[in-house]
Amino acid sequence: MGKRKAAGSIVLNAMTIVITLLIIISSLYFVRDKMLKNAQSLGTALTQSYATEQQAQMRMFEDYLDIGSQYVNELIRSGADDKEIQNWMVDYFKKITKLYGDKVIDPYAVIGGKIIAVTPWEGDDSYEYKDTEWYQMAMADKGKVVFTDTYEDAITKESIITSSIALEDEGAVLAMDIYPSKLQGLRNVLTEEIEGNALYLCDSKGHLIYAKTPWNKPSEKLDEYAHTLFDNVQKGYFASYDDSFKDFNNERRGVYYSQMENGWMIIMTIPFDTLLLGKSNVLMYGLLAVGGILILILLFMFVRDILHSRKIKEADRTVSILSDSFYAIYRVNLKTGMYTTLKNAADMDEKVGMNGTYDHLLQMIETVVEKGTYQEFAFCFSLDSIKQRVKEHIADYGGDYKRRFNDRYKWVNIRTLYNEKISSEEVILCFRDVDVEKRQELQYTLLLQETLETNKKSAEAKETFFSNMSHEMRTPLNAIIGFSKLALESGDMSDKNKEYIKKISFSGQNMLSLINDILELSRLEAGHSRLDYRDFNLEECIHNISGSFEAKAMEDKKDFKVNIDIKNKYIKGDELKVVQILNNLLSNAFKYSDAGDQVLLEVKELEYRQYHKIRFTIKDSGIGMSASFLNHLFEPYARETHFSTKSTIGTGLGMPIVKSLVEQMSGEIDVESKLKEGTTFVVTLPFEVANAQVSEEKKDEKQTENVLQGKKVLLAEDNELNREIATEILQMHDLKVICAENGKEALDIFQSSSPYSFDLILMDMQMPIMDGCEASEKIRSLDRDDARSIPIIAVTANAFSEDVARVLRSGMNAHIAKPIDFNVLQEVMKAHLK
């Protein structure tokens, strides 16, 4: 009995031992297997990290070379010689050398068939650079920085890598040799300390660039060793976590690697003994530690499960919170066409149920969707439409519509959601009440529309006001200025009366200037001012501007000088805007200076790449401005007020207009001024050099005047005074004038006249019975040849750009604003009669 018990005990113990051994062995195997997998993950992660750092370092070299190529291209375009390019390269690459150390890089360039090196080579004249890999790669992939694999330098005989990029000049290349063995940054990348590990950086052909190993072996031996590893990696020999090889010391090692974008490869090897916790008494250590390992594993798994369970609970709470924001949620299977209810609306519980066909769900939804909306709803959320969106990878789709809840309609939002990583055959259909947000949004949209409409009406009212103001003020001004001119030209009056007439004319011109400033400022504020780029003669333009001020300088006893220093007198730009800017600035210089003061206009050309800049300097020694006023100089209606011999003059609109025009032309304006010392304005404007010279051919005055002599003009003008002025001045220039008091009368006169009996029509815009634009359209539509060819010129107090556009649309040829400048009118008539 005792034997049996002993035998039984022995058997039981033996079985326990066997089971324990099996558990230990299986545990050791499991631990080993797990550690090797973890080692593979760690090794792969480390090599990927090294690869990323190395790629970042190479990209820095790529960026340095790319930026350098842009500067060299700029130097070549500017005509720099080899010495200038070399000096620039020395300066540029000196900064890079400070970052990476001496003799790490060797930059050079091939330009015009010659090698320009920062450090001149020995024998570079005979160097066949065209046969090199770096030159051929750069030529094959122009505009992109390329890297060679390692190779032996033909001159230094050292192992190098060359980075190169093709330049814009034919056959030109900027290159940079990199010495890996001296690159401290590369060594820093490959210094991760793991006991007994070895690290190799190979190029795309398997040649060793750099290595850190526990062996003191010749470079040739290490290169051969690394090349073998590279080939075996390429063949997939180390794809599995437990693959290994034997090193120089016959130790088994695991291999981990990562390949970079350029084909280079980081390879790391770690001894299996290191991976498996040492090589002495492993089994004994494992047997003694197995209990602790199992406990640690169990604890780890237990903690992991607790954490995982906590995450699941948090996710469940999050999903619950999200689901609370939806009043209904359904899972729809696109393959079977069935739905499953996850959450239902209170009024749909009995109708929809827990599951059913998707068609049935749509039918139930139809009963609560607002009439007129369901057809679009059914199309957008049909199974076919949802499947199409899934094919197009549209993960989130939806919109707002009105749904009935009991006896009231509310805005709701529907969304179809899917995640192709989870399942491409199922989508989530969810509904949310957005009534409050939607109504606020609609109210905001309505408010925005009303605001926009109010602003539009306000802008239109402002534009109408300025247009009417322009018309109502220009019309009497035309009479004032026109009759003043006629009175002065008649000569039949005393000197005292002439002085009175001159003052009336001067006041009229000041009023006209004020109106023009207000209109110009309103155009600029409304964005209606446009640039008209044309070729013109800048030198001639400056002479024309200065000519009008020379008489003023003599009259006021001021010293007016003009200096012009330009290389290209024919430029492309908006001549009228230039004239407007300079006239404003010169007018101020004369206005705010006293007799004996100096006024200087200086024009100088500044070359800047493809654009040429013109600097206009207007300087006077007049009364100047205070420092405090300079801060407000360009504000509308701002005027300097201080004690001086001159009272405050002007409206304060000229300088804001000048600044707006300069900014519109992409220019700059600067001002310096001191009280009692004077003011200097500097305006710099960019221009293009004109492709063709502006024609300077002009007919002499006598020949030009003959163009108008004896011509017959039809004048349509409803204002009696303006009609009288125009008739008188036109007749003074030997023109025959037939008058009409409105557009209808002008149309009748022209229609009843014989063809080609009239040479020109001057047409007011705003007239009773029929306005000028309508009359012009009807004249152009008459069935007679001269109706389409006769020049029609608008002479009107409507001076806005919209008025000019309306005039041209109606068939008129040109637009002249009142008060009429008869010199301008004369030139326009001559141009159209030629």
Verbal overview:
With 834 residues, the protein is α+β, with helices and mostly antiparallel strands. It folds into seven domains: 43-178, PAS domain (Beta-Lactamase); 184-275, 2-Layer Sandwich (Beta-Lactamase), CATH 3.30.450; 289-323; 325-433, Beta-Lactamase; 441-508, no CATH class; 530-689, 2-Layer Sandwich (Heat Shock Protein 90); 701-833, Rossmann fold (3-Layer(aba) Sandwich). The protein is built from 24 helices and 29 strands. The strands form five sheets. Strands 18, 19, 20, 21, 22, 23 and 24 form a seven-stranded mixed beta sheet that branches. The model is unreliable at 1-14, 641-648 and 694-704 (pLDDT under 50).
Task: Please give a handful of descriptors for the protein shown.
phosphoprotein, 834 residues, disordered N terminus, histidine kinase, transmembrane helix, 6-stranded antiparallel beta sheet, alpha+beta, 7 domains, 7-stranded mixed beta sheet, Beta-Lactamase, CheY-like_superfamily, His_kinase_dom, flat
- Uncertain ranges: 1-14, 641-648, 694-704
Number of domains: 7
Beta-strand percentage? Answer: 15-25%
The CATH architecture classification of the largest domain is 2-Layer Sandwich
Mean pLDDT: 78
N- and C-termini, Cα separation: 145 Å
Percent helix, as a range, is 40-55%
